[in-house]
Structure to design on (216 residues):
């Protein structure tokens, strides 16, 4: 990426953050753009994402991942990003909230190799990468929030991760259009706490964040 491109990406990111009401420091914005640079570099060899242009990665990967930030708990927490792939939404959220502890889980070794390199270069001390199948993963403690971006349908997502949710925790699933059918298929052991409509600058597409909790 040349200087003109870098300036354009920085402007797109900064304007998008303002539109979403997110106040991130210059250093945080630089880390987000550095993440896009790493993704662009690795994508040429490993084909991590179908989106190959950095100028499209900013809205599709950075802003899309950060859109739910104001709808998630404000306090420090432990979050699990299931099927993290190349690190969305986990890495952008970790950059935006250094007080959170994030675990990025994926069974694909190629992708977790990239994730480990990214958190090393970006100096993200609050991120752990795990290479494992979600149903086999057995951490020492549960997570307060479990999220995913295009991992699976809601019922399957919850079935595979119920053992990973801490008491009083919630699932926060990133979806496209309002998932009426997926919600209707949820088991009676859980309930939908709420569904937030998200506006992502630069994306002409519906986005929703579905909050689900266990029935107490």
């Amino acid at each position: 990426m040349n200087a003109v491109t870098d300036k354009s990406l920085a402007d797109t990111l900064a304007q998008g953050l303002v539109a979403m009401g997110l106040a991130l420091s210059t250093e945080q914005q630089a880390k987000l753009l550095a993440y896009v640079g790493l993704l662009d570099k690795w994508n040429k060899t490993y084909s991590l994402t179908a989106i190959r242009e950095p100028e499209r990665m900013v809205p599709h990967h950075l802003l899309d991942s950060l859109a739910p930030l104001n709808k998630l708990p404000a306090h420090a927490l432990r979050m699990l990003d299931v099927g993290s792939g190349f690190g969305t939404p986990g890495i952008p959220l970790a950059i935006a909230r250094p007080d959170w502890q994030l675990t990025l889980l994926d069974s694909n070794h190629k992708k977790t190799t990239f994730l480990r390199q990214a958190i090393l270069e970006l100096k993200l001390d609050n991120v752990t990468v795990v290479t494992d199948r979600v149903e086999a993963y057995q951490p020492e403690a549960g997570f307060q929030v479990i999220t995913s971006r295009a991992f699976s349908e809601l019922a399957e997502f919850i079935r595979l991760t119920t053992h990973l949710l801490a008491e009083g925790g919630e699932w926060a699933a990133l979806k496209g259009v309002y998932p009426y059918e997926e919600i209707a298929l949820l088991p009676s052991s859980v309930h939908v706490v709420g569904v937030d409509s998200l506006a992502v600058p630069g994306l002409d597409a519906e986005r929703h964040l579905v909050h689900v909790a266990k029935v107490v």
About this structure: The chain has a mean pLDDT of 95.
